[in-house]
Write a structure and sequence with these properties.
The protein is mostly helical. Helix content is 75%, strand content 0%. The chain has 4 helices and no strands. Helix 1 packs antiparallel against helix 2 and helix 1 packs antiparallel against helix 3. The radius of gyration is 34 Å and the shape is rod-shaped. This is Chemotaxis protein CheZ.
Length: 141
């Protein structure tokens, strides 16, 4: 019995996308830091007011690069959440599938008890007639 939910590996795809984004961010940060180091070297060579201005600007770049660590932590938290959701969903779906198989097996072999059946129409002659129900209410007075 199919659950009706087909994620087609959505969690795995999401984790792959997160890993790709993380890698691309790391590459971009590496290039920015390399360029900042080159600027810092140029500033030291230039000296004076220009060198000081370049040193201040590259210092700001290096301080801002701490954002990479924060992004990495957030991406790790997202990875963990996706993995947990995937595991929880898979477990819940498996439980539902097991229950559905159990019900289907009971129906097939005829072992489903009346207490396990859903309310539904009674078989002809097995139900209490409307006249019998009315008589019960008439006797309450």
């Amino acid at each position: 019995m199919k659950s009706g939910v087909d994620d087609n590996g959505a969690a795995a795809r999401a984790l792959s996308e997160i890993a790709a984004a993380d890698g691309e961010l790391q590459d971009a940060f590496d290039r920015v830091l390399e360029a900042a180091e080159q600027l810092m070297d140029t500033g030291e060579s230039a000296g004076g007011a220009v060198g000081d201005a370049i040193a201040a600007a590259t210092g700001s770049i290096f301080e801002a690069s701490a954002m990479r660590d924060i992004l990495g932590q957030r991406l790790s938290a997202i990875r963990e959440a996706v993995t947990l959701l995937d595991t929880s969903t898979a477990s819940a779906l498996e439980t539902k599938r097991d229950k559905a198989r159990e019900i289907e097996e009971k129906r097939e072999d005829g072992s489903a008890s009346e207490s396990g059946l859903l309310n539904g129409p009674q078989l002809p002659g097995a139900a209490t007639s409307q006249a019998e129900v009315d008589a019960l209410f008439d006797n309450l007075d």
